[in-house]
Amino acid sequence: MAQKNLLKYILIGLLENEKKTGYDLKKLFETEIGEFWSAKHSQIYLELKRLEEQGYIASETGLFGNKIEKTYYTVTEKGRRVLNEWEETPTGELPINKDEFILKLYFIHNKNDKRIKEMLSEQYRLHASKLFHLQERMKLLFKDEISRTKNYGHFLILDLAIRREQEYIGWIKQYLY
Amino acid sequence: MAQKNLLKYILIGLLENEKKTGYDLKKLFETEIGEFWSAKHSQIYLELKRLEEQGYIASETGLFGNKIEKTYYTVTEKGRRVLNEWEETPTGELPINKDEFILKLYFIHNKNDKRIKEMLSEQYRLHASKLFHLQERMKLLFKDEISRTKNYGHFLILDLAIRREQEYIGWIKQYLY
DNA sequence: GGATCCATGTAACACGTTACATGATTGA
DNA sequence: TCAATCATGTAACGTGTTACATGGATCC
C-alpha cells in the first residue's frame, strides 16, 4: 500500500467542497477519517506544502484574532482533475491487513494454550468498544434517508465497518466459550 | 503499526521449530503468511542480519550442490525469550486497515453515481476470488481434527479470514443489486 | 496564572518498496 | 540452450512516526 501516496487524494478530497486549514484536516483524521485512515499533523503539513508546489491546491492566508495566521487551502482545477482520475481508476489488489493480534495467534500452536482465552478476551473488549462507537456514528450521521443519499459512500463504508465488527465479535464468541 | 518492528517476531517465530534460509522465509511470505502479512526479500535478508547481530538468531552455512552457499538460521535462547515476551504482551490498540477502495468510496457523495456499481463489481470479483483461495487453504491444511489441534492459531485466523470475506461479499451484494 | 486547545512547523529515524545486481541449478 | 527458479545481497527512495519546537487564544 505504501508508495502510492494516497494521503494526497485524501487531502484533495477533503478540501474539495470547502477550504480548510492544516489543523482542520488534522482534526478530521482524529474523528471522521480516523475510522479508516490515519495521518499525523507533521505529515499533513508537509504534504499540503508539496501539493501546493505541484499546483493541486492553492492557499490563502487568513487572520485569526489579530496575530495568528491561518493558512486556508482550496483545490485547483488540476487538483480536481487528478482526484477524478484516481476515483475512476480501478483499485485492484486487495490490501493486506496487518493485524498484530492475528500474527500472535498464528504462532500459538497448541489448542489448550492458556493465552488464547486471554487474547480473545482482550480483543472482545476492543472490538465491542469499536462497534459501539461506530453505531453511535451511524446514528448521529445517518439517521434519515436524506443524509444517506447525500453522503452515500460514507454511509456504505460505515455500514461495512459495523458489519465487520459484528462478524469479528461473533468469531471471538464462538471460540471464547 | 509501523515502528514496532513486528517482522522481527515473525522471523523468529517462523524459525522456532526448524532452521530455514532467507529464501525459505521469503517463500513463506508468498504463501502461508501472505494472507495476513507481507515482506520483500530485501527486507527479510537485512532483518535476518540484524537479528543475528543482536543475538536472537544464529546462522550456519550449508552447501547446496557444490558451489552455492545457503545460510540457515536458527533461534537462540534469547530469541525464544523475546518471542515469548511478545506473545504474552497485550496487543492493545486496534490497527487501522488502510483500504484504497474504502477511501474512494468515502469521496463518492451521490447515491446515483455510476461509479459505485463499477467499484462494487470489481471488489466482488476480488473478494470472491480471495474467499475461494482461503477455503481451498482451509480444506488443504485443516481437513481433520488433529491438524486443527496442532496449529490451532493458524486454524482460528483462517476461519476468521473466511468469515470476513463472506461478510464483505454479503455487504457488496446488498448494495450491488 | 495555568491548563488546554489552536495553529504550524522541522528533524531524526524506522519501516517498506523498487530497482539494481549477481550467479548457480534445474528441467524442458 | 534457454527459461524459470534458487539464493543472496545493496542502494535509493518513499512513507509514516516520534520527538522537538514555538507561540497565541480561550476558559476556568
Labels describing this entry:
3 strands; homodimer; mainly alpha; 177 residues; 2 domains; 3-stranded antiparallel sheet; Arc Repressor Mutant, subunit A; 62% helix; DNA-binding
Q: What does this protein structure show overall?
A:
2 copies of one chain form a homodimer. With 177 residues, the first copy, chain A, is mainly α. Chain A folds into 2 domains: 7-88, Arc Repressor Mutant, subunit A, CATH 1.10.10.10; 100-176. Helices cover 62% and strands 10% of the residues of chain A. Chain A is built from 8 helices and 3 strands. In chain A, strands 1-3-2 form a 3-stranded antiparallel sheet. In chain A, strand 2 and strand 3 (68-75) form a beta hairpin. In chain A, helix 2 (22-30) crosses helix 3 and helix 6 runs antiparallel to helix 8 (152-176). The longest helix of chain A has 27 residues, at 115-141. Chain A starts with 5 loop residues before the first helix and ends with a helix. The mean pLDDT of chain A is 94. At the A-B interface, helix 1, helix 4, helix 5, helix 6 and helix 7 of A face helix 1, helix 4, helix 5, helix 6 and helix 7 of B.
The secondary structure category of chain A is mainly alpha
- Arithmetic mean of pLDDT of chain A: 94
Q: Please give the number of β-strands of chain A.
A: 3
Q: And the CATH topology of the largest domain in chain A?
A: Arc Repressor Mutant, subunit A
Major β-sheet profile of chain A: 3 strands, antiparallel
